[in-house]
Amino acid sequence: MTLKTVELESAPNPTYSVIWMHGLGADGNDFVPIVKELDLAGCPGIRFVFPHAPMLEVTINGGRLMPAWFDISSTEFGRDDDEKSLRSSEADIRELIEREKARGIAADHILVGGFSQGCAMTFQTALRHPEKLAGLICLSGYLPLEDSFEAERTDANKSTPIYYGHGRGDQVIPITRAQRSLEVLKKAGYDVDWHEYNMPHSVCMEEIDDISNFLKKVVV
Q1: Would you place residue 74 in the very low, low, confident or very high pLDDT band (cuts 50, 70, 90)?
Q2: Which of 10, 166, 170, 181 is catalytic?
Q3: Which of 10, 17, 116, 140 is catalytic?
Q4: Cβ contacts of 179 within 8 Å, gap of 6 or more
Q5: How many domains does the chain have?
Q6: Mean pLDDT of the chain
Q7: Of 66, 114, 168, 176, which cross-links 122 as Cys (Cβ 3.0–4.6 Å)?
Q8: Residue 11 is part of a domain; what is its CATH number?
Q9: How confident is the model at residue 8, as a pLDDT?
Q10: Is 74 a catalytic residue?
Q11: Is 0.85 surpassed by the pTM of this model?
């Protein structure tokens, strides 16, 4: 069943789409307010699609049922991620990509992005996708399933631009974890636009401005 979503269009008849995943315990409404903060002057119409993650029992939170893209059992991010639920969410996000294509948005006009767990899902889905996408917006997260990444990544998105931002004071996912992912991506030859901010596990105005600038380069 297709994930339920919240949608916002920057102009009628959009020609680009951004599929943007929230973090653990949030929902699709979480990043809707950021669209109004983005300076999209000069950009063509963009449809922002904010899906709601499925409800999962999350081990690290005592098995409590909450919106989550995948289960985690400790803070060894990337080592203890539940592969079954992660790949299930990957399939759900790919279905959203297909839905945007069916609505008339070409694959190379679709961006995938997300925060925290949503960032992990962005890397997981977009870099394995068989068609070229427009770009990735990766916020305060990491590259999951590193052991299978080299074998599963596709050439289609080898040159797709990647915005990757992280807070130096992130108390949830340490910036060292993100830097490790950055090194893996760079070694594999990806075009990563890396940004560090003086912020915790969140998004700041400086980062919103940088996302605006990234979108203006990609959405043309």
Answers
A1: confident
A2: 170
A3: 116
A4: 166
A5: 1
A6: 96
A7: 114
A8: 3.40.50.1820
A9: 97
A10: no
A11: yes
